[in-house]
Design brief:
Blueprint (H helix, E strand, L loop, with lengths): L4 E6 L4 H15 L3 E8 L16 H19 L6 E6 L8 H15 L3 E5 L6 H17 L4 E5 L11 E7 L4 H8 L3 H4 L13 H5 L5 E7 L1
Parallel strand pairs: 1-2, 1-4, 2-3, 4-5
Antiparallel strand pairs: 6-7
Length: about 220
């Protein structure tokens, strides 16, 4: 049904599972059809974050496509409902016009009742760009959807009319953890010269509680 569709926009492969994994499972179980739109290819997680030249970014991008496909399948997202836009990781702000054009097309086709995207005040340029692009696209389409922003990289959150929604995902946590385990390139030391994981154990654990937090406006 047209009024039972939800889109989760993720700047990178793994954002959707880290911050919204439990909510995705819950919404699907409640009868919603959930789409996940991944905006960048995640290729620079190792060269820019860890300074590794091997494997090359193109190889990392292929790995992350496989990981997000496996993770979202565990969450219950249909394979046809995973949309990969493929913009270059860390450079989303350079593709605003093209990204907005594509997202407007997606919004018009799906007509979601709810949209989730990274927080406008996240400590990541890609995350902030994703939020602005999605917000502008929703406005241009004039879509009466509820927009929820989810935090990944912290940062102070405060704006007029701010409303906090805490989603209990205790029953969905096991499935979320299983999905997170598919992101081995991010949570493990996978390559010979890699001395640490891209995402620390403490960082990943911070997303493994029985609740997920979202921000919206009155």
């Amino acid at each position: 049904m047209i009024d039972r569709k939800i889109i989760v926009f993720a700047p990178h492969p793994d954002d959707e599972t880290l911050a919204c994994g439990g909510t995705i499972v819950k919404k699907i179980q409640e009868g919603y059809e959930v789409y996940v739109v991944v905006m960048t290819d995640g290729r620079h997680s190792h060269d820019l974050v860890l300074g590794l030249k091997e494997p090359p970014p193109e190889a990392i991008a292929k790995i992350r496509v496989r990981e997000v496909s496996e993770a979202t399948a565990i969450l219950g997202v249909q394979s046809d409902n995973l949309i990969l836009l493929g913009f270059e990781d860390s450079k989303l702000s350079q593709y605003v016009a093209k990204a907005k054009e594509r997202i407007i097309q997606i919004l018009n086709e799906i007509r979601p009742v709810e949209v989730f995207v990274t927080c406008r005040e996240d400590d990541s340029e890609d995350h902030r760009a994703a939020c602005q692009i999605v917000k502008d696209s929703i406005k241009e389409v004039n879509l009466p959807t509820r927009l929820y922003e989810y935090p990944v990289w912290g940062g102070k959150v405060s704006w007029p009319g701010l409303k906090v929604l805490v989603m209990n995902v205790n029953k969905e946590l096991g499935t979320k953890k299983e999905a997170l385990s598919k992101y081995k390139s991010q949570i493990s030391k996978c390559f010979p010269k890699q001395k640490e994981a891209v995402l620390s154990e403490d960082f990943v654990k911070s997303f493994c509680s029985d609740s997920e937090t979202f921000y919206t406006e009155e």
